[in-house]
Amino acid sequence: MLHGRDCIAFAQAQFMSDVATLGDGQWQWSGWLTPKGRVIALFAVLRHSAERLDLIVLDADIAALATSLKRYVFRSKVSIEVRSGVSAMGQFALPSIARGASASIDASVTELDLGSLSEPRTLSLREADPVIAVDPDAQRRWRAFDITHGLPRLDAAQREQWTPQQLSLERLRAFSVAKGCYPGQEIVARTHFLGQAKRGLAVLRGAPDAAAGEDVRTGEQVQGKVVSVAGDLVLAVLPLERLDVPLQIGGIDVVDTPLLDGLAR
Question: Which InterPro entries has this protein been placed in (predicted)?
Answer without folding.
Answer: TrmE/GcvT-like, YgfZ/GCV_T_CS, YgfZ/GcvT
